[in-house]
């Protein structure tokens, strides 16, 4: 059974491309370990783009801080503060279990984003100084889901207070934070 000429040309072209690619990637020269290290370090540094000036690093740190803190604030307000003010966390309230599950997810998400915002703030001297006193408060947010299940009404209020303090710290450092409500998929994905 004859094979059409077009298929043969395509197969030949693909084989040649693969052969040329595999031989171009290989090297027959042997180098010493210092030469190999010296030649690979600059390539590794060029592979990960980074800002070239400290001013650019600080700008990106502020931008990332604003994005992460905004997502934490939005999740907190939407799924913790609003249900708390509506009384959904009280024992016997209609929809309490669903509200607690959403608040637990939102709390974990907000904690994750606050830790990321805290890490971003380290790139900017003003932000790092402004957030330094809030480290213990952010760490204390880990226990929010357990406190809410026990019916502690002050747990949501303390979470809201920490978020407001982070927003105030950002504002004082020139990085105002606006609430950004994450989608449900972002919330469940972390």
Could you please describe the fold and organization of this structure?
The chain is an all-alpha fold and 190 residues long. The chain has nine helices and no strands. The chain has helices at 5-25, 33-47, 54-86, 96-121, 125-131, 135-139, 144-149, 154-172, 184-189. Helix 3 runs antiparallel to helix 4 and helix 5 packs antiparallel against helix 8. It is flat and about 80 Å long. The N and C termini lie far apart (57 Å). The model is unreliable at 26-49 (pLDDT under 50).
Distance between the termini: 57 Å
pLDDT averaged over residues: 76
The largest sheet is: none
Helical segment count: 9
Radius of gyration: 26 Å
The portion of residues assigned to helices is over 70%
DSSP, total strands: 0
Q: What global shape is seen?
A: flat
Estimate the strand proportion.
Answer: under 5%
User: Spans with pLDDT under 50 lasting ≥5 residues?
Assistant: 26-49
Structural class: mainly alpha
Reading the helices and strands in chain order gives HHHHHHHHH
Brief summary of the model shown:
The protein has 190 residues and is an all-alpha fold. It contains 9 helices and no strands.
SSE layout and pairings?
Blueprint: H1 5-25, H2 33-47, H3 54-86, H4 96-121, H5 125-131, H6 135-139, H7 144-149, H8 154-172, H9 184-189
Defining traits:
single chain; 190 residues; mainly alpha; 9 helices; 73% helix; 0% strand
